[in-house]
Request: fold
Amino acid sequence: DAEISTRKKTFTEVQTERLDQAERTVLIKCPSKLNEKKLLQYLSSHGNVRSHFFFENRGINALVEFSEKSSIASLQDAVGIPNAAEHHVVPFKSRLFTFTLKNPVSQPAEETPLHLSPQCHIPVTDLIQKLCLADNISSQMYILLNEYQLTEENIKLRFLACSLVRDFTRAYFPDSTVKPFGSSVNTFGKLGCDVDMFLDFHDTQKSPTKMKKGPFEMEFQMKRLPSERLATQRILSVIGDCLDNFGPGCVSVQKILNARCPLVKFSHQPTGFQCDLSVSNSIAIRSSELLYIYGCLDSRVRALVFTIRCWARVHGLTNSAPGTWITNFSLTMMVMFFLQKRSPPIIPTLDQLKELADAKDKHIIGGYDCSFVSDLRKIKPTKNTETLDVLLGEFFEYFGNFDFRRNSINLRKGKEVNKPESSPLYIWNPFEQDLNISKNVNQPQLEKFIAMARESAWILQKEDKTQKIINKEPWGLAALLIPFGKSNSSKMKNRMKGIGSETIRSLLDSLKLNNANNQQKAVGK
Reply:
C-alpha cells in the first residue's frame, strides 16, 4: 500500500519530499563492534530519530534521518575535530561523522547481527538460479525487477549525496539546490547505477511579489558573462575545485567543461556512488518526469524495461562505456514505443499526455514544447490485459522484424515515421524533435541487436519448459540470460543469415528514397 501511495504522487511532490528528508539526514561511519540500541539511544538525545538503516561500504555505515533539522545542529555541536597529528584537516563541518568506541574492550557487541541493506544487485548467475524456481515467465520478470530496482534505502542515500554536495554549492549560491535526475528518480534505476545530479538556480530566478510594490524597479548587481555556457563552465569549475579541495570523501574529481553538456565527475566515497554534476538541464528533468509517469502507470512497464536491459547487457548489446552500441536510454525508449503500439495501448503517446496538460504543466524550454500532464489521476488506466510473458515474446518478435532501414521510432506520435536521415537506428528525442537519441549506434551493433531479438523470440516460442525443468536446465527468461554463442552457435548463424546484407540494402534504399524525393520535387515545380 505504501508503494502504491508513493506511486500516485506527482514527480515534483516526490522530489520535494525526498530533498527535505535528505536535509534532515546524517551519515555515520560506525565501529565494527556496534550495539545498535546504544547508538540510537545516544542519537535520540539530540532529537527524535525518524528512520535509520545500516549498509556496508568500507566498513559499517549508518544513514540516520532525524524528525527535525535542528537535531543535526545539536549533534554537530557535540562532535569533535579529527586529531591532526598525521595530516592537517580542512575545517569543514559536514553531515558525515565517524563514531568510535571509547572503551572497545568493555563494550559488548550486538547480540543479534546488524541487518545490512544491500546496495548492489545479485550477480546474473545467482539471478538465473532464482528465476528457475518461479512458476512462469511473468513471475521471473517480477523477480528480476525486485532484485535489480533501487531500494528505498538506496534512493535515500542518493538524495543524501546530492544534499551533501548542495552544502558546498550554498557557500557560493545560498538559494541553489542540487537535485538528482535520470535513473536515480525516473523509476528505472538499477542498483549500482551512477548518480546524475544538477545544480539548480531556478528557485532564485523566480521574481518575488514584493518587487511589484514601491516606486522602484529593483534588481541585484550580478557578474555578466557573454554566454550561458561560459557561466556554466565557470560555476562548475569553481564547484569542482571546491569538492576536490574541501569535500570529505570526494575523490577522482574530473572537470569535463568542454563537453556538449559541461559536467564534473567524481567518486563520493562515503555513499559509494560515482557522481556526475551538471548545471540545470531542464529538458533532461522533463525526460526524467516523463519516464516516471510511464513507470507509475502500469507495473508491466518497469518489469519489461528491466528485463530487456538485463538481457541486452548479458549479450553485450549495451555497455557502460560510451561507444557505438545501444544505450540503456535508447532501449528504454524502444520498450515505451512498443507498449504504445499494443492493441489496446498500454501507455499513452506523448501527444496524448500533452492534451491532458493544464496551465501549470506548460513548459517551453529553448523553443521546444515539453508540456505534458503531471497528475497521474488524469490518465485513464489501460484496458490491455496481456501478460508479461506474451509482451516479452512480442517485443523480440516486433523488433526482430522491424524495418529499421525505412522507419524511425517516434514516442510523441506513437507510430513509425519515415527516417529523416540515414542513421542505422533513429529514435526521435521526445522533446528536442530535431535530435536522434541513438545517433551513436552503428550498423553492426544494430544487426547484432536484431539477431539477438530473433534468437530470443525463437527460444521463447520453441522451448519445452517441462523437459527443461526435468533436465534441470534454465528455462524461460533464465534461458535468455545465458550468452547464446556458448550453447547454440550454429542455430544462431542460421537466424543471422540475411542480416549481414542490411548495410548494402539500406544504402540502396536511401538512394531510391532520394531519387523518389527528387522526382517529386521536380514534378512539384
Observations:
- Residues 510-525 have pLDDT under 50 and may be disordered.
- The domain at 1-98 is CATH 3.30.70.330 (Alpha-Beta Plaits).
- The longest strand covers residues 49-56.
- The CA atoms of residues 292 and 342 lie 20 Å apart.
